[in-house]
Amino acid sequence: xxxxxxxxxxxxxxxxxxxxxxxxxxxxxxxxxxxxxxxxxxxxxxxxxxxxxxxxxxxxxxxxxxxxxxxxxxxxxxxxxxxxxxxxxxxxxxxxxxxxxxxxxxxxxxxxxxxxxxxxxxxxxxxxxxxxxxxxxxxxxxxxxxxxxxxxxxxxxxxxxxxxxxxxxxxxxxxxxxxxxxxxxxxxxxxxxxxxxxxxxxxxxxxxxxxxxxxxxxxxxxxxxxxxxxxxxxxxx
Length: 237
Fold this sequence. Notes:
Elements: E1 28-32, E2 35-39, E3 52-54, E4 56-60, E5 67-72, E6 82-83, E7 88-90, E8 102-109, E9 116-124, E10 135-139, E11 142-146, E12 162-170, E13 177-181, E14 184-185, E15 194-198, E16 206-214, E17 221-229
Parallel strand pairs: 2-9, 11-17
Antiparallel strand pairs: 1-4, 3-7, 5-8, 6-7, 8-9, 10-12, 12-15, 13-14, 13-16, 16-17
């Protein structure tokens, strides 16, 4: 009897392999507000609250929400204003900065120095009130005076032979005044802000310049006129 043989078959177990893929998004940073306008810190008409602005940053896909703040100008140099670790930006004084100067606010994710967000600050205003320049003013500006002698000047009251000039000083810490008569310093007049100008004897009619100047700033000066006269009584020979 013939013998039949069949091929031997071996069965192998089937294995299923599962691969787990975790997709991690890049860290992203967002800053608000994206644009802000603030006044210079010494702006003459500005409300101090408008000389600063607080920025807020949101960090996405990161383990930490912390950011590092910085201020730069458009060329990458240090900015004009400053920002603290909480995101509070404070405008600089005006100085020589132009109206419309731009600062760039940079928020960098603490986890990744390559992930940044930007905002822009426009600085506005004219700066502080200009300093007042010292001024000096002499009063009165003009006085008519008579000689006490000669012609008929004896009929003139003595009060009309002299004049008290005063110097009013503004915007200056110094109050020391030099008095001059026709550009000659009157040493005996002292340095007080007043000067008693007197006529003596007789003379001809003329105009004399009375000047006052700040001793510490001689360029600060003002002047008045003293007109010397002689009196003639009508009908007297």
